[in-house]
Amino acid sequence: MSLFHAVVLAVVQGLTEFLPVSSSAHLVLIPWLLHWPDGGMAFDVALHVGTLFAVILYFLGTWVSLTLNGLGIRYPAAATEQQFRLNQRLFWFLVAGTIPGAVVGFLFEGFIERTLRNPALIACALIALGLVMAAADSISRLDRHMEQLTLSDSLIVGSAQALALFPGVSRSGITIVAGLWRNMTREAAARFSFLLATPLIAGAALKEVPALLRLRHTGAIDISLSTILISIAVSAIVGYAVIAFFLRYLQTRTLKIFVVYRIAFGIVVLLVWFLYRGTAR
Known about the structure:
Mean pLDDT: 90
Structural class: mainly alpha
Distance between the termini: 29 Å
Strand content: under 5%
Largest sheet: none
Shape: globular
Helix content: over 70%
């Protein structure tokens, strides 16, 4: 894979990881549409390292407070008792919400990588979740904020996150949809989605990046270390900017533009797939 291809995919990863349009779908479909080599799931996870850095840096203060408060340490010292207790609850809610995705990933990640990186299946997932997103965005009361979250909310959103392993579903998309069904505001649903995604992205990176480096060392994939590092940096910078933009956007806007994009992109991919199958016969 050339540096140009890798950087383009890094930009795509940064743009799509936190928007509800499915980064995994784009990382599969764009090389397929442009006839570029597919870096495989290991390279996809390396790009996710960049967006992991982005979400950690953006929410660094939040994560420090949540973790310390969750472990019973009052931080910052000026925090009120109410804020301390709220952060304690939210930290353990995030821990509980992470479990379903971790279990499903451990059991089925290999099967998904072997069988579900198929353009037609991904396009169908893009369209299907787009329709579900439209329904959730229009029906939700949008009246619950982060401080009102419960353990049930966390488990439901976390269980929805497990479906994000299927390319085309979108981690942020499915968790935001689940949050909207629980009547969260759009911003609260997105913020909780990003916090909930952080441990799983970190776990996937710890598992897959060493495997990617071993494959590169043995010559099984043609990606230089410098290309990998540059790609991670690019996806981190773009991802950080997208988080800041998207949270501001959701304060006053709906998800309609993302619904339209998912459905339109899915239809285009299906058309190309059918045409390709027709000419290949």
